[in-house]
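Hi support team,

I've been running sequence recovery on a batch of backbones for a student project. Most finish fine, but this one hangs at about 90% for roughly twenty minutes before it completes. I'm not sure whether the input is malformed or the queue is just slow. I've pasted the C-alpha cells below so you can try to reproduce it. Let me know if you need the job ID as well.

Thanks,
M.K.
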C-alpha cells in the first residue's frame, strides 16, 4: 500500500509565500510589519522539518540536493536577468529616476560591470539585480545555513559526551543564539558571506527549530483555538515594532525574533492542518502553490509591473513610476492596490509555470510519437 502524502507543509509554504508577496506589495504599515516579523523564518523552519539523520549519514547527497535546488535556480535566473538588464532600461521597466524605496537608483551596466556581477553571482551567490530579484538572498541563506547545520551536527554527534538527535540540535540552536548575539552586539561581520552573514545565522537557528519541531510534532497541540492566540502575540510584537530577518538587527532581536518566527510558523501550521482536512480545488491550488514557490520567488516582482501599470493609469501618474521598486509608492498607505499586487504577484508566475509545463509536455508527447 502506498502512503498518503503529507501536504501540511506544502500548505504552510503556500501561506508563507503569499505573505511574502503581500509584504513586498507595500500595504498598510501594520500589516506589513506583522508579516515581516515571521514570514521568512517560516521557510527556514519548513526546510529544517525535512532534515533527518539520513542526511547526516549521506552528507554529500544532501549537499548535492541543496546545490541543485538552491544554487542552480538562483544562478540561472540571476544570469538571465543580468543579461536583459540593459534591455529593461530600454523598454522602461527600470529607470534611474525613481529607483527603489530608499531613494537609490540602478544604472545600465557596462560590459566590465556586467562581467563583475556575473562573477559575484556564480562564486558568491550575489550580484543579482536586486531591483527584480530582491528575494534571492533567501536561496543563499538557506543553502549556507543548512550546510552549516549539517557540519555542526556531524561534529557534535561524534562527541562521546553528547549523544542523541534532539540534544545535538538543541546545542546547535543554543550555540547559534549565543554567536548571533555576540555578532550583533559587537557589530561583527562574516566577510566570506555576502551581507555579513546575519541572515545565515538566523537561518541556522530556524532550520534547527524545524528539525526539533519534526521530532516534537505529535506532542504539539493543533487546536484551532490557538490560532487567535498566536495571531494576538504577533500583533503585539508588530505593535512594538519587533524586527524580522533584516540587515540592521539589534541585540534584543536575539530574544524576539526566535519567538515571533516560531509563533508565526505554529500559527500557519495550525491553519494548514485545518485546511488539509478539506478537499477541493482551493486546497489543491494551495498545495500546488507551496510546491512551486521558486516560480513566485523569481517572478513576483516582475509580475508587480502589470499592477503598477494599472495603478499608473488609474491615478494618471508619470509612466516612469513603472520603475519603482517594488511597487508604485504613491497612495500605497491608503488604497487597496496591495491586494491586487498580492493576487497578481502570486497568480501570474504560477499561471506562467502551469502554461509552460503544459506546452512542454505537449511538445514532448509529439516528439516522442
Amino acid at each position: 500500500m502506498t502512503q498518503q502524502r503529507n501536504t501540511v507543509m506544502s500548505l504552510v509554504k503556500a501561506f508563507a509565500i503569499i505573505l511574502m508577496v503581500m509584504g513586498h506589495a507595500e500595504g498598510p504599515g501594520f500589516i506589513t510589519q506583522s508579516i515581516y516579523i515571521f514570514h521568512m523564518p517560516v521557510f527556514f523552519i519548513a526546510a529544517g522539518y525535512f532534515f533527518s539523520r539520513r542526511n547526516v549519514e549521506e552528507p554529500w547527497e544532501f549537499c548535492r540536493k541543496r546545490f541543485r535546488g538552491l544554487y542552480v535556480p538562483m544562478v540561472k535566473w540571476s544570469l538571465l536577468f543580468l543579461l536583459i538588464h540593459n534591455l529593461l532600461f530600454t523598454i522602461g521597466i527600470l529607470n534611474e529616476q525613481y529607483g527603489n524605496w530608499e531613494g537609490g537608483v540602478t544604472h545600465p551596466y557596462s560590459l566590465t560591470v556586467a562581467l563583475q556581477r556575473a562573477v559575484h553571482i556564480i562564486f558568491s551567490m550575489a550580484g543579482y539585480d536586486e531591483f527584480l530579484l530582491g528575494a534571492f538572498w533567501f536561496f543563499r541563506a538557506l543553502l549556507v545555513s543548512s550546510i552549516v547545520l549539517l557540519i555542526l551536527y556531524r561534529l557534535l554527534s561524534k562527541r562521546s559526551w553528547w549523544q542523541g538527535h534532539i540534544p545535538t540540535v538543541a546545542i546547535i540552536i543554543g550555540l547559534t543564539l549565543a554567536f548571533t548575539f555576540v555578532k550583533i552586539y559587537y557589530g561583527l561581520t562574516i566577510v566570506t558571506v555576502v551581507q555579513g552573514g546575519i541572515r545565515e545565522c538566523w537561518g541556522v537557528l530556524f532550520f534547527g527549530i524545524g528539525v526539533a519541531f519534526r521530532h516534537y510534532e505529535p506532542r504539539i497541540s493543533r487546536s484551532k483555538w490557538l490560532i487567535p492566540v498566536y495571531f494576538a502575540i504577533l500583533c503585539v510584537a508588530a505593535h512594538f515594532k519587533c524586527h524580522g530577518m533584516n540587515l540592521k538587527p539589534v541585540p534584543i532581536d536575539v530574544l524576539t525574533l526566535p519567538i515571533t518566527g516560531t509563533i508565526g510558523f505554529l500559527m500557519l501550521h495550525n491553519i494548514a492542518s485545518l485546511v488539509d482536512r478539506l478537499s477541493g480545488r482551493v486546497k489543491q491550488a494551495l498545495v500546488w502553490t507551496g510546491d512551486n514557490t521558486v516560480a513566485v520567488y523569481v517572478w513576483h516582482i516582475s509580475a508587480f509591473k502589470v499592477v503598477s501599470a494599472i495603478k499608473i493609469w488609474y491615478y494618471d501618474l508619470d509612466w516612469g513610476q513603472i520603475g519603482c521598486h517594488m511597487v508604485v509608492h504613491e497612495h500605497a498607505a491608503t488604497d487597496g492596490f496591495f491586494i491586487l499586487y498580492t493576487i497578481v504577484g502570486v497568480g501570474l508566475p504560477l499561471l506562467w509555470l502551469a502554461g509552460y509545463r503544459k506546452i512542454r509536455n505537449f511538445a514532448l508527447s509529439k516528439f516522442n510519437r
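--
Follow-up from support: It reproduced on our side and the slowdown came from queue contention, not your input. The chain has a mean pLDDT of 91. No action needed from you.
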